[in-house]
Amino acid sequence: MYLFRLALASLANRRFTAFLTAFAIALSVCLLLAVERVRTEARASFASTISGTDLIVGARSGSVNLLLYSVFRIGNATNNIRWDSFEHYANNPQVKWAIPISLGDSHRGYRVMGTNESYFEHYQYGHRQNLQLAQGRAFANDPFEVVLGAEVADALHYKLGDKLVLAHGVAAISLVKHDDKPFTVIGILKRTGTPVDRTLHISLGGMEAMHIDWHNGVPARGAGRISAEQARNMDLTPTAITAFMLGLNNKISTFALQRDINEFRGEPLLAILPGVALQELWSLMGTAEKALFVVSLFVVLTGLIGMLTAILTSLNERRREMAILRSVGARPWHIASLLVLEAFALALSGIVAGLLLLYLGIALAQGYVQSNYGLYLPMALPSAYEWSLLGIILGAALIMGSVPAWRAYRQSLADGLSIHL
Amino acid sequence: MSQALIELTDLSFSWPGQPALLDIPAFRLEPGETLFLKGPSGSGKTTLLGLLGGVQKPDHGSIRLLGQELTALSLAARDHFRVDHTGYIFQQFNLLPFLSVRENVELPCRFSRLRARRAEQRHGSIDQAAASLLAHLGLKDPALLARRADTLSIGQQQRVAAARALIGQPELVIADEPTSALDADAREAFIRLLFAECREAGASLLFVSHDQSLAPLFDRHLSLSELNRAAHGACAGEV
């Protein structure tokens, strides 16, 4: 204990270097833990993007592609599928529920998704959580009603009753707008932390009505135009949708139905298991995530090497200190322990400061990260895994501290009681 | 003859690959004696102190301290023995600058149980032992005890070093040019204080210096070159 006090006093005497050294360690520890937290949280939130859905069906392409556009609203479908294919499987006795999805339009960079009321009833994310409305209601009979995801409403400051115009296509700036058929906000969903937050939901009828006077991708002109009022009275059953999701009565039939869909005679379809596709997708992104982790490990190593350098550099100018200690009875192993304790003190204060920095950072960034990236960074105590990382850092610091300790040991044996200037 | 405090017999020492630096047939220091040992730099004086401190081992010959044969002890045991029975005062910058004056004086008691016990027996506590020694050496102000050692003048620092050498009553005080940083008046005053304290504690004083003018103050004075048959080694690279 007395040795530890001596080590601290000696460090305090070199407080500027000691502070910088500990600060470098603190920054690296903070970075490592931050990366670790974001990583854990990203993985968890990624895996909980969709749940409860047994099969996702779309036009035949790749499973990751289908998952990306149907769940993450990234990229585009290569092809539409026919409405009667959807009806065929929606009426299959093994199917408990079916959610049709129709994509292709957008509003100020956010995707628009056409669907029906079964989406609000059956779509689940996270731990089997259903979508919930924060305000208003789901769309009903009128085709020109829109339900906003939480982020859309927040970012664009929409409230119930507002009118908005959807744009054709998914580019952030679209030149072609459906400005003849404005939609009314009738509901805003609670935040889910999934792509649902960034989606505008309209009914399939609304999707159909917007495009009813379109031919070959361009709107009709003059007499060919159909007003919103006229559209309301027409049959708005779609002829094609982009994809659909299926919930089954019995999980056991999943594979049989998947095979059946993949071999469907009507048109080429692809059915995927969301869990499997999610894993496939994560394994693609996992490399980046691992790389980030490795980089932050190296930053920690750099911090520790900085400490090693600082202690080693100080050894020469501290020969006098060592000789004085020897003359008052310190054994060489006392001198060695002093240096290990010094490394320990530096690393420990670096770790503690790093944790404080982390919590400060989380406190400051929590809201921003949640609203911009849908990641909730918990203000929680370190997990067992994080503790073990910190333990390893401390252990590494002790091992590194034994290098100058060994040198000082040798030095103090050689110098003995003679004081070198 | 009574037991000597230090007794060297047929001692020889050389650094690896160099000619013999020390070759001392016989040397004695009696208990309570103050001895001035004249040794210019390069005469092997630092090495001799290293041998007496048990930091180095002689090539052959015997070093007895208080009747204990040092060469028969392990390195760790020699370290123990040294701090239990010897107090050191060096040229200057004797103190750990980051500790207070009091903590500096108490250092030997942290590493030697024997000296801690003796300090407690005589003064009641280590703190009181330090305060009393410092007061004897003219550092009476209690506020001074809490100050960082490097805020003191050189003269004050040397007196603190003397207090540290004397705490816990070691039988031997070794002073290696302790006055070289002091001016002439302060030098003699310091030595007289040191004598008084050594006498009070019953310690012998081995005072090594090249400054001949101080020699008459001591019980006995000797030149290392008279003692050392390997005096030609004076030009060896030892500093």
Question: What does this protein look like?
Answer:
The complex is a heterodimer of chains A (about 425) and B (about 240). Chain A is about 55% helix and about 15% strand. Chain A is an alpha+beta fold. In chain A, strands 1, 3, 4, 7, 8, 9, 10, 11, 12, 16 and 17 form an eleven-stranded mixed beta sheet that branches. Chain A has a two-stranded antiparallel ribbon with strand order 2-15. The two termini of chain A are about 30 Å apart. The model of chain A has no long low-confidence stretch (mean pLDDT about 85). With about 240 residues, chain B is α/β, with parallel strands linked by helices. Chain B has one domain (about 5-235): P-loop containing nucleotide triphosphate hydrolases (Rossmann fold), CATH 3.40.50.300. Chain B has a five-stranded parallel beta sheet with strand order 6-7-8-3-9, with helices on both faces. A four-stranded antiparallel beta sheet of chain B has the order 2-1-4-5, covered by helices on one side. In chain B, β7, α8 (about 185-200) and β8 (about 205-210) form a beta-alpha-beta unit. In chain B, α3 packs across α5 (about 125-135) and α7 (about 155-165) runs parallel beside α8 (about 185-200). Chain B is globular. Chain B starts with 5 loop residues before the first strand and ends in a 12-residue tail after the last helix. In chain B, about 45% of the residues are buried. Chains A and B meet through α1 and α11 of A and α1, α2 and α3 of B.
